[in-house]
Structure formats: structure tokens, C-alpha cells
């Protein structure tokens, strides 16, 4: 009897042990996952494109009269000062062409006078724009100190003042160039009149209208040139701009005065820039895949100190990242953590959360604090102990790595990356150790 009872007890214990072993063997294992923390900090979206540098002003120096051109001693890259001699032309005028040449010279003088008047008008317009920008900055600075104007808006006002001053400097330079061209046109007219009067005309010197570098030589050897023949090109490489060709749909997203980061230019670090203008006319381009695209040129001013990009020249290739949205304090998660809202999960209300509503307003740049019109509901999984918890969030914006969300989440909370489709709310998970 005792033997049977002992056998029964042992058998029961063995069956229980076997059942426990089988249960342990077939019990679902925790799913190994990768996690990343919720972050609070600056968030930006950018448009990335290749661009190239270009001189803001390029001057083509041409022959003001017909004659024999002496061989040029300048070479590409040589620096010249304003008013320095560039070329020497000995007039060789045919008697039958004297009257026509004189009329052409008179027309060049009249054109130079008109250009000088236009430059003076542009200077007045630039002065008015500079005064307006400085007035706006003077009004924004005390408001920013009181918290009524965001730091981004104040930065825009300061950049507007810098752009207005640069425009005024450019207008003054154009007036100087127009004055030199007028003087050169009058000198050419005097040379023609001397030749028409039978007096031997002196060799005419073509002088530089502006300080800069020789970019290209059109006449390398001595020879006879006609009026208007191109001799060489001049430009100041310290006055560069960056040109990027963007899709027209992308260009519409760029706010006025948007900040630009320039990388892959060959030097250390990044250069700072600002969008000055989006050209009004687009052109049709064919992509590498053979697709026709409508692209428009975006002109960007370099705002970094010139000494930082002194090695750049005309036509250099650079990388351009135009900031379309900037939020100084945004709740962010990796893009890999988000996925569409599962079927059957109710969408949360679009009102801001209690924590967000009670928080003080944050200054923003190029974006409003309100929820964007294209915001949509997404989902992610939080790690709560050893369980995955489904959380719905509002996706406000995203870039290549991070997503700006609105939700009642604390920074530092771990979220799952690349959640598998089989994962369910409340399922056990184990963080994979790297």
C-alpha cells in the first residue's frame, strides 16, 4: 500500500515536472528589440541639393574702338586694380568709316551716361531699403528682449540689415564702374576725333573698370580688333554667390530669407548662407533617368566670413542644405520608430496634450507653433519594463533621421526601433544589447 502511494506521488511529481518543462519549452520568448530614447531639442527640415558658386558681377571688357591690339601681358588669375591698364590699341581707322565710327562712339558715350544715371537711382533705392531694414531691426530688438518676438525673427531682421548693406555696396560699385566706362567711352571718342582731324592718334589704353581677377582671356595674341570685340573677363572672387537648381515644388517650400548650410565645398566645416532670391522663371531639365523636370534657380548669399571661404572660386561645386523649418525645442523620436496607426485603434483628438498646453510658448523659426495642416496620426511602441506598449502620436514633421511629434511623452523614454508586424500591445520584449 505504501509502495503504491509512493509510486503515485512520484509519478504525480514527475508529471508536474514534465508539464512545467513542456510549458517552459513552449512558452513564448520575449522578443528582442532595439530601442532609442525620446529626445527634446532642436529640429530642422532641409532641402538638400548640389549647387555651384558664381560671381555676383562679371565684367566683359571689350574694345571701345577698332585698331591693332598689342599682345596682352595678363594671364588668368592675375589680380588688377580699378583703373589699371589692361590692353593697348593703336587706332587704324579707314577714311570711309570715320563718320560711322564717330556715331558709334557717341552712342557708347550716351549709353554709359544712362548706365551712370541708373546706378545713381539704384543707390537711392538701396539706401531706402537699408533704412527700412535697420528700422525694423531697431523695433524688433526691444520686443525680443521682452519675449514678444522669437529669436528666429530677430535673426531674420539682422540678416535683412546685412543683405540691405550688401545691396547698397553693390549699387555703389556699379556707379563706380559706370563712371569708369563713361570716361573710357569719352576717351575713345576723343581718339576718333583726333584721327578724323588728321592728327596722329596716340595709342589708346583700355583700363579696368573694377578691381578683381582676370577670369578669361578672349584675345591672346596681337591682332586687329573691331569695335565691341571681347578682350577679357574680370570679376571679384570675394563677391561670390551660390546657385542651386531646385524642383519648382520644392522651391515653394522655402521661406523668405531661409538659412542655408553649405557643405562638401572642399574645406573644413560648414559655411553659412541665406536665400536672397528665387528666380521667377523655371526651365525644363532632363534628369539622369530621362525624366523631364521643372527646375528654378535659388540664389544664396554667403554669410560666413570671407576669410573662411577665400579658396573658393567661380564655378566650384558645393552641397546646399536649405532650412525649410526650424523648431528650437521639439519632442523627437527616430523615424524608424513610427508606423501607420493599426486598424481598430481609435485616433486620438487633435487638440494639444495637457502637458503641451500647460507649457510656456516656445519661440519658433520659419514655422508656427500650431499643428501643421498636414499633420497625421502615427503609432509607436514604448518599452514599459519588459512589455511593449502601443502609443499613438501626432506626426508634425520629419527629416531623414528624426520625426517631430506631439504626444504626452517624457524625454528619455525608450521607444522600439523597426517594430515587427507581429508585435502586439503588451507583448514581452527584451532589449538587445549591442
3D structure, described in words:
The protein has 434 residues and is an alpha+beta fold. It folds into three domains: 31-41 and 328-431, conserved putative lor/sdh protein from methanococcus maripaludis s2 fold; 46-53 and 239-325, Elongation Factor Tu (Ef-tu), domain 3, CATH 2.40.30.170; 60-234, Helix Hairpins, CATH 1.10.287. It has helices at 2-26, 98-145, 151-196, 248-251, 354-358, and strands spanning 31-37, 39-55, 58-62, 67-69, 79-80, 85-91, 204-207, 212-217, 223-225, 230-235, 240-247, 259-263, 271-278, 283-286, 292-302, 317-334, 339-340, 376-384, 387-398, 402-406, 414-417, 429-431. It has a six-stranded antiparallel beta barrel. A four-stranded antiparallel β-sheet has the order 3-10-8-5, with no helix packed on it. α2 packs antiparallel against α3 (151-196). It starts with a helix and ends with a strand.
Subunit organisation of the chains: single chain
Report mean pLDDT, rounded to a whole number. Answer: 79
CATH class of the largest domain: Mainly Alpha
CATH architecture of the largest domain: Orthogonal Bundle
CATH topology of the largest domain: Helix Hairpins
Radius of gyration: 36 Å
Largest sheet: 6 strands, antiparallel, barrel
The number of domains: 3
> Percent range for helical residues?
25-40%
Q: What is the number of beta strands?
A: 22
Strand order of the largest sheet: 2-11-15-13-12-16
Shape: elongated
The arrangement of helices and strands along the chain is: HEEEEEEHHEEEEEHEEEEEEHEEEEE
Termini separation:
60 Å
Count of alpha/pi helices: 5
> How does the helix and strand content classify structurally?
alpha+beta
* Spans where pLDDT lies below 50 across 5 or more residues: 351-369
Beta-strand share of residues: 25-35%
Amino acid at each position: 500500500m505504501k509502495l503504491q502511494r509512493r509510486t503515485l506521488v512520484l509519478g504525480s511529481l514527475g508529471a508536474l515536472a514534465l508539464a512545467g518543462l513542456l510549458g517552459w519549452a513552449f512558452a513564448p520568448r520575449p522578443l528582442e528589440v532595439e530601442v532609442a530614447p525620446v529626445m527634446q531639442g532642436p529640429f530642422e527640415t532641409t532641402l538638400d541639393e548640389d549647387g555651384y558658386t558664381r560671381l555676383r558681377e562679371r565684367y566683359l571688357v571689350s574694345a571701345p574702338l577698332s585698331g591693332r591690339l598689342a599682345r596682352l601681358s595678363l594671364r588668368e588669375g592675375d589680380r588688377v586694380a580699378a583703373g589699371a591698364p589692361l590692353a593697348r590699341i593703336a587706332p587704324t581707322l579707314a577714311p570711309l568709316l570715320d563718320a560711322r565710327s564717330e556715331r558709334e562712339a557717341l552712342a557708347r558715350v550716351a549709353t554709359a551716361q544712362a548706365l551712370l544715371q541708373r546706378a545713381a537711382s539704384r543707390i537711392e533705392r538701396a539706401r531706402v531699403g537699408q533704412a527700412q531694414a535697420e528700422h525694423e531691426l531697431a523695433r524688433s530688438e526691444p520686443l525680443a528682449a521682452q519675449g514678444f518676438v522669437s529669436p528666429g525673427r530677430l535673426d531674420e531682421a539682422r540678416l535683412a540689415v546685412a543683405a540691405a548693406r550688401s545691396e547698397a555696396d553693390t549699387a555703389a560699385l556699379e556707379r563706380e564702374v559706370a563712371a569708369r566706362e563713361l570716361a573710357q567711352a569719352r576717351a575713345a571718342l576723343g581718339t576718333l576725333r583726333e584721327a578724323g582731324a588728321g592728327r596722329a592718334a596716340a595709342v589708346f589704353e583700355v583700363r579696368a573698370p573694377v578691381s578683381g581677377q582676370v577670369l578669361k582671356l578672349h584675345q591672346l595674341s596681337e591682332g586687329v580688333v573691331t569695335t565691341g570685340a571681347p578682350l577679357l573677363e574680370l570679376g571679384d572672387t570675394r563677391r561670390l554667390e551660390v546657385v542651386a537648381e531646385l524642383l519648382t515644388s520644392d522651391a515653394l517650400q522655402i521661406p523668405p530669407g531661409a538659412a542655408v548650410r553649405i557643405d562638401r565645398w572642399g574645406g573644413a566645416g560648414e559655411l553659412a548662407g541665406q536665400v536672397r532670391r528665387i528666380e521667377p522663371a523655371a526651365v525644363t531639365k532632363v534628369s539622369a533617368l530621362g525624366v523631364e523636370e521643372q527646375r528654378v534657380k535659388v540664389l544664396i548669399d554667403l554669410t560666413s566670413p570671407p576669410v573662411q571661404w577665400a579658396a573658393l572660386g567661380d564655378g566650384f561645386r558645393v552641397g546646399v542644405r536649405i532650412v525649410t523649418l526650424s523648431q528650437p525645442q521639439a519632442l523627437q523620436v527616430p523615424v524608424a520608430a513610427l508606423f501607420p496607426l493599426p486598424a481598430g485603434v481609435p485616433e486620438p483628438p487633435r487638440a494639444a496634450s495637457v502637458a503641451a498646453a500647460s507649457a510656456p510658448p516656445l519661440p519658433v523659426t520659419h514655422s508656427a507653433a500650431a499643428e501643421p495642416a498636414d499633420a497625421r496620426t502615427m503609432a509607436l511602441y514604448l518599452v514599459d519594463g519588459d512589455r511593449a506598449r502601443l502609443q499613438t502620436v501626432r506626426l508634425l514633421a520629419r527629416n531623414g533621421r528624426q520625426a517631430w511629434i506631439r504626444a504626452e511623452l517624457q524625454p528619455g523614454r525608450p521607444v522600439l526601433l523597426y517594430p515587427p508586424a507581429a508585435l502586439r500591445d503588451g507583448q514581452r520584449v527584451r532589449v538587445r544589447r549591442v
